[in-house]
Design goal:
The complex is a heterodimer of chains A (281) and B (344).
Chain A lengths: L2 H13 L2 H11 L4 H5 L7 H14 L4 H16 L2 H16 L2 E8 L3 E8 L12 E6 L4 E4 L8 H11 L15 H8 L22 E8 L17 E8 L3 H6 L13 H4 L1 H5 L2 E5 L2
Parallel strand pairs in A: 5-7
Antiparallel strand pairs in A: 1-2, 2-3, 3-4, 5-6
Helix pairs in contact in A: 1-4, 1-5, 2-5, 6-7
Chain B lengths: L25 H14 L6 E3 L12 H4 L6 E7 L2 E2 L6 H18 L11 E8 L11 E8 L12 E8 L4 H4 L6 E2 L3 E6 L1 H15 L3 E3 L4 H13 L9 E7 L6 E7 L1 H11 L5 E3 H19 L7 E6 L3 E4 L3 E4 L5 H16 L1
Antiparallel strand pairs in B: 1-12, 2-8, 2-9, 2-15, 3-7, 4-5, 5-6, 6-8, 10-11, 10-13, 13-14, 14-15
Classes of the chains: A alpha+beta (281), B alpha+beta (344).
Chain lengths: 281, 344
Amino acid sequence: MDETVAEFIKRTILKIPMNELTTILKAWDFLSENQLQTVNFRQRKESVVQHLIHLCEEKRASISDAALLDIICEDVDLFDMKQFKNSFKKILQRALKNVTVSFRETEENAVWIRIAWGTQYTKPNQYKPTYVVYYSQTPYAFTSSSMLRRNTPLLGQALTIASKHHQIVKMDLRSRYLDSLKAIVFKQYNQTYETHNSTTPLQERSLGLDINLETKFKSGLNGSILAEREEPLRCLIKFSSPHLLEALKSLAPAGIADAPLSPLLTCIPNKRMNYFKIRDK
Amino acid sequence: MDSYNAPESTPSASSRPEDYFIGATPLQKRLESVRKHSSFIPTPPRRKIPQCSQLQEDVDPQKVAFLLHKQWTLYSLTPLYKFSYSNLKEYSRLLNAFIVAEKQKGLAVEVGEDFNIKVIFSTLLGMKGAQRDPEAFLVQILSKSQLPSENRQGKVLWTGWFCCIFGDSLLETVSEDFTCLPLFLANGAESNTAIIGTWFQKTFDCYFSPLAINAFNLSWMAAMWTACKMDHYVATTEFLWSVPCSPQSLDISFAIHPEDAKALWDSVHKTPGEVTQEEVDLFMDCLYSHFHRHFKIHLSATRLVRVSTSVASAHTDGKIKILCHKYLIGVLAYLTELAIFQIE
């Protein structure tokens, strides 16, 4: 076996976590059952790897065999769709008995999930389903807001367990358009945010910015207006535009906003949120 | 009900944030001049806060319930020549025939149009401000029922009503041959509005004109409707501004809890029973300055396009929705004033 091939296989195997090693080697199907049985997987990793390289040499592994191992590592590393779907469905069905779960896989490694919720005693309501889009290559899932609140924890649990993550955290990003959320979350927007000449990123369509203000009114020029009032003004401000980030940027040059722009307007890409609550300190 | 105080010659000055700028950008200067032009209307600098009018108590709330919670498109209408309230049945018949004829003309374009319609003219009793105001009337297009029973009413396809609330300034200028109902409100397909408008124009030698509402008047409406006493609020108070910026426009919506809006108004308000120009300006400036404090954006340099309160909501394109029966007459009074101004 070529030196370079041996080295390549060694580095590839070293990258595989120990708990997945046997799975991957079986999937590779290059080393025989008998050969694998001779390996003591409880040793230190270096010793295991050395043993495996030795076995590969015995079988005269070629560069294409090495390449195949590499691909399998990538594949297993990412995702087992069938297992995810089964696991997800089982978790919901065990908890609710009455639930309709459907899947649709799309390109970009996204799986669309439709869930119609029922209870232990009632049939699933097909008219108020929840939609979830899970991007298996990423730790992100997007859910539609048409969801009965009591099912949120269960949905979170099912997603976490089925996708083999540890925890699920709700982000403060909302939009009517999936593309715009993806743009922010997957950082698919133009990074050179501060320059005025940057081209408009395609996927920024129709993102909104919502800010919930509960702050006291400060008189300023107006003397004693609301001076005695302890309670804050309860306000909700919404900015919306087909190209929100670009529109906000153009406010200062137009003289409509003071430069530099308020941090509330520039923080969407950094904080990856588009819903904020501001309170008096 | 009393009529307004005599208008003064110029609106009183107000303090606006942009007065404090040292240098204004070309856009700001342009926006300011546009605003000055559109606000240079010799309208009275004070108006009465809408109250429950005595006359309104004669109006059956159920009869006018259908006017609420609907979006109406506004038009101003010049006085109708030789219109008679005793000919309403005749008008129904004539308009009906006209609509059918017009729709048949357009048959090539609108295939499958349903010609089973019925037109009804009726008066809206009590829908006036002063005794002198002419009676308001209503026109409805209903789809005729398929069933043989005569009394069965079909679905309402289109509604339009004509009214005049405190139209003294117009009434004084016309002869007896004319009926002054300067405010027209329509709900339903634009194509029907056009056909009916054409018939009225031909029959009574009048002229409809879409009634836009500029930012100046929207601000007044917001202040007046916030000033109205409410037992409970059914909607949040909301303002919508459109910002002309490149590459495409930006909409800024500012919603404030109605109780907080009322508290702000009460703090600004000085003259009992009335709203003055200064108070409107101060109310708006407070909102602008609260917004500026957080966002460093000068809302006064943008275009106010919509205001919404628990009393009513209005859009600059001349669309109105009235939510509160109690202040129906008050809202219509302001709109009548705008319509009359557009006609004169």
